[in-house]
Amino acid sequence: MKRQYLVIESIRRLKNDVYYMTFTGDCHEVSAPGQFINIKVGGFYLRRPISICDYDIGHISIAFKVVGAGTQKMALAEKGDLVDVLMPLGNGFDVSKGGRNPILVAGGIGVPPIYCLAKDMVGRGEKPRVICGFNNADDVLPMTKFNEIGIDPTITTMDGSVGMKGLVTDAMYEEQYDYVYACGPEPMLKAVWSLAPDGQFSFEARMACGFGACMGCSCQTKYGSKRICKDGPVLYREEIIW
Amino acid sequence: MVDTKIDLAGLSLDNPIIPASGTFGYGKEFAEFYDLDVLGSISIKGTTREARYGNPLPRIAECTDGMLNSVGLQNPGLEAVCDTELKDLAELFHKPVVANISGFSLDEYVACAEVMDKQPNVGIIEVNISCPNVHCGGMSFGVDPASAAEVTAAVKNVTTKPVFMKLTPNVTDIVAIAKACEDAGADGISLINTLLGMRIDLKKRQPVLANKMGGFSGPAIFPVAVRMVYQVSKAVNIPIMGMGGISSTRDVIEMMMAGATAVQVGAANLVNPYTCRDLVTGLPGAMASLGIERLADIIGIAE
């Protein structure tokens, strides 16, 4: 974990208010899918925590959604800009603790870290099944990166405009699995949690520091309080208290 | 060669830079970034007699040049802090620390002060009197001179180490409260704690913080802090740890010219974890450029 500058290699709009940004720099410390970086945005006091979508020793990429003035400003960044980041942060997913027959479930902007996990699993010789849920056709993110690693995710939309009509949990009913990796909005995580025999769940929270100092994102678990930024963002099924 | 040493209530510090309580945990996270021994001291996370989980999430809201927090004094409680956190910190930081304590009744303050006084690596006890007094209708101890004096006297009665009273700025007359603390035996004053603030989420049409209101900190509050440190330093004869929005070496010098003997750095640690280290390394250069040879010479120099 350190503070460093990355160089923006590319930025493009992925879909409506979702942007995809790639960086070059020293990324060798990134050790697991599900970790995140905390980005300083000019003119804003606190950093913006964003999950890593893809990484290698000299690059990372993120996909982020414009949800306020800070991410709006991020979307205006240009190729070649230097960005002040703290990274890597958080524990990330641990596939060594996963089950024999896992399924990966993502909702909305929770898709990028799940892609990162899927790619990691493919690298280990597995071919994970992936479910990606969105509100409607407008929100559906391109699945190109999944397809490139040989995965064809099941898509669900609330209105049925693309893929299966319904929630990610509706798609889960059609699958056999003994372990779930999930990332998405909290109501989705809760619904997925109730169907999962076991699994790892990546949470989102408003953070100040992102590295465990301020207690701004502490939540209660079965094993005492945990900081989403430092002890998470990935929590294990058995420890989660809703 | 410039001299950054200062004397703080009998404690000799290599420099006046002290990370503020609640923004530095017990040092562990920052020891991953730099060697803590460069710091003058460290004010540890506020400790209460019992463990506290704190407030519901969200606890953080952003502001222009600052932030709100409503962490709610989350801490593992006095026993765990002394048995584990302070001992672990002693391995990472080899100088006396500032033990920040809080309470919701006089008894709780006394219990914390008594135990902290016995800890070998505690150099100063800093008493946060911004919490609501549960025995007095929930009004903060720190908003009334009489109750501030009462806490001061009770803590002084059970301690041998210097006691700094940490004051809330959310009062009409900060000087009266500081003087009441001095008269009751305080060895120093820490100020300012956070300003009470609030933000509203425009989409949800509701407060951002689950607790609705929270403490406002960051560069935006610096002028308020300088003003209060100045006012109090002119009125009392005990040293002041000045804090509130400090993020540069110029801020450190300004706060000391206003009357602070040492400074605490809070929110800035959360945005740039290297802030305090950078202040320590940058201070000699900043002093030299302003013609300051001994930092101690500028304390309260502003008339």
Automatic annotation (TrEMBL), chain B:
GO terms for biological process: 'de novo' pyrimidine nucleobase biosynthetic process; 'de novo' UMP biosynthetic process. Pfam families: DHO_dh. InterPro entries: Aldolase_TIM, DHO_dehydrogenase, DHOD_1B, Dihydroorotate_DH_1, Dihydroorotate_DH_1_2, Dihydroorotate_DH_cat, Dihydroorotate_DH_CS, Dihydroorotate_DH_I. Its EC number is 1.3.-.-. Substrate binds at residues 45, 69-73, 128, 193-194. Binds 1 FMN per subunit. Its cofactor is FMN. Catalyzes the conversion of dihydroorotate to orotate with NAD(+) as electron acceptor. This is Dihydroorotate dehydrogenase.
